[in-house]
Amino acid sequence: MKNKMLKGLVASFAILINVGVYAGIMNFDDLEDPGSPTTNFVEINSYSDIGFQLTTAQGAFSYWLQNEQGYNNSAALFHQNEGGVTRLSALDGSLFNLLSIDLDTIYRLDMIVPVEFFGYDANGFQVASQSITLENDGWITFNFSSAFSGVSYVEWSNEGHHFDNISLNKVTSVPEPSTLAVFALGIMGLAFRKLNKQV
């Protein structure tokens, strides 16, 4: 009886500690397609995966199929409109941390492509910005600063590049350590009370 109760307490405490952060990668693997002689790219209006979404108010997103010369080992997305803005947000509107994204120039042209990311809070105020210049170096992983922690959404302009493997995690309410301690003491008190009644 004591072992079962102790195991239950430990399991409850472990669940409470681990509830809080969901990490994942949007990798567009579900879009992979060999293509056909008449089709080499696909347009989509938005994309959602692992509880996050990519949307745009201007035009649509595209991705190369595997038979296209521009395909670079991945069904990465790019924006159809030059200067079109991409928005990344959680489907349920919760805050998240943006960790990294893979970027590459489109068409593998000898060109310099500046990309600037902007992070916004729940009130729509800009709280973060970070930029990179792509120079046809192939896929690179761009890591975000801690300023992109706890953002409501992130936007960036898509000129001359495509993106893949967006690494992020959703932040949920995590009990403070003092709350966990009070909870643990309360559970222990109930357990001892029950044990004393049985004796």
TrEMBL record:
Q: Which UniProt keywords apply?
A: Signal
The chain positions of domain Ice-binding protein C-terminal read: 173-194
- Does the keyword section mention Signal? yes
Give start-end ranges for the coiled-coil region(s): none
Quote the InterPro entries the UniProt record gives. Answer: Ice-binding_C (IPR013424)
Record's Pfam families? PEP-CTERM
Q: Does the keyword Protein transport apply?
A: no
Leader sequence residues: 1-23
Name the UniProt record assigns to this protein: Ice-binding protein C-terminal domain-containing protein
Species of origin: Thalassotalea marina
